């Protein structure tokens, strides 16, 4: 059985993709079999791993709507020991196309079910919206959602809406859906504001905030342009250390699965 976590926050630019890639890279470095699933039409996770989205002929769109088995769609980076179910521009139409499909909320979950034995961790990178792609991401989040929150002014804005969506999904479709944790991102210790945000998020999500806090780091922002996770681009940087700490925290908390 794989652990399946979904990176979600409908607010854009908070670090969902950066967390999916770099957490995934460190989990892989710890010997875990890791698959990143890109269900964002922007295909940022795909690009961050050095894949040109325009060159992707088949990806998560085909798994969701084309009836193609995901195993046939996965790209493996042997050097990083990291697998990717890529996104492509085709996914942009899927919000509309899914509306008329049977099982429109659970198509991703069904597709990923076939991969349970092949991976230890599956990390889903969602788009910045609460549409059907994200709902598919929530329904597939077998072991919970991970919510990145940027340490800045209005950080909590929109989290009420996200919590409400999670509650609606629980009530209507998936009572077991849990929040695995909140990751504080782009923390700048020089500002009082960042410290205030940390305190506020801890108040809002008691017991759910990961101890590892991700600092603002230029290296983290640069790595995607080289198509590399931070573990390969700048392993000694503060951002790298923070994502490694996050991976270790999650590994330590997750009980071995039978
Ligand atoms: P979207 O909602 O558009 O999918 P996202 O939530 O996935 O965005 P990212 O793409 O991970 O957010 O990050 C937004 C931008 O901030 C990117 O340019 C990324 O490189 C940069 N970034 C992310 N985390 C950090 C960090 N800790 N320090 C500096 N830059 C960062
Ligand atoms: Mg993203």
Brief account:
This protein is of the alpha/beta class and 258 residues long.
Characterization of the model:
With about 260 residues, the chain is an alpha/beta fold. Helices cover about 40% and strands about 15% of the residues. The protein is built from eleven helices and seven strands. It has helices at about 15-30, 45-50, 60-65, 95-100, 105-115, 130-140, 160-170, 190-205, 220, 230-235, 240-255; strands at about 5, 35-40, 75, 80-85, 120-125, 145-150, 180-185. The chain has a seven-stranded mixed sheet. Helix 1 crosses helix 11 (about 240-255).
Strand content: 5-15%
The counted number of beta strands is 7
Task: Kindly report the oligomeric state of this protein.
Answer: single chain
Radius of gyration using CA atoms only: 17 Å
**Largest sheet descriptor:** 7 strands, mixed
Order of helices and strands: EHEHHEEHHEHEHEHHHH
Strand order of the largest sheet: 3-4-2-5-1-6-7
Shape summary: globular
Which structural class matches the secondary elements? alpha/beta
Ligand names? adenosine-5'-triphosphate, magnesium ion
Number of separate helices:
11
Low-confidence regions: none
Average pLDDT taken over every residue: 95
Keywords:
7 strands; 11 helices; alpha/beta; binds magnesium ion; 258 residues; 7-stranded mixed sheet; binds adenosine-5'-triphosphate
């Amino acid at each position: 059985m794989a652990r399946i976590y979904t990176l979600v926050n409908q607010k854009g630019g908070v670090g969902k993709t950066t967390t999916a890639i770099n957490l995934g890279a460190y989990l892989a470095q710890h010997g875990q079999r890791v698959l990143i699933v890109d269900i964002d039409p922007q295909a940022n996770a795909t690009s961050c791993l050095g894949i040109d989205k325009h060159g992707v002929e088949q990806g998560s769109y085909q798994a969701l709507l084309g009836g193609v088995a995901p195993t046939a769609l996965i790209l493996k980076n042997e050097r990083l020991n990291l697998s990717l179910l890529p996104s492509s521009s085709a996914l942009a139409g899927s919000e509309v196309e899914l509306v008329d499909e049977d099982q429109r909320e659970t198509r991703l979950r069904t597709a990923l079910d076939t991969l349970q034995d092949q991976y230890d961790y599956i990390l889903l990178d969602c788009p910045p919206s609460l549409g059907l792609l994200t709902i598919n991401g929530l329904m597939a989040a077998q072991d919970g959602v991970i919510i990145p929150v940027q340490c800045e002014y209005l950080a909590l804005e929109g989290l009420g809406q996200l919590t409400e969506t999670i509650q609606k999904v629980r009530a209507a479709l998936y009572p077991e859906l849990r929040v695995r944790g909140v990751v504080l991102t782009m923390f700048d210790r020089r500002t009082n504001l960042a410290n205030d945000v940390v305190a506020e998020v801890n108040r809002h999500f008691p017991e759910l905030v990961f101890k590892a806090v991700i600092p603002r780091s230029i290296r983290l922002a640069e790595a995607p342009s080289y198509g590399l996770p931070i573990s390969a681009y700048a392993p000694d940087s503060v951002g790298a250390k923070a994502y490694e700490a996050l991976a270790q925290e999650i590994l330590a908390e997750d009980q071995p699965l039978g």
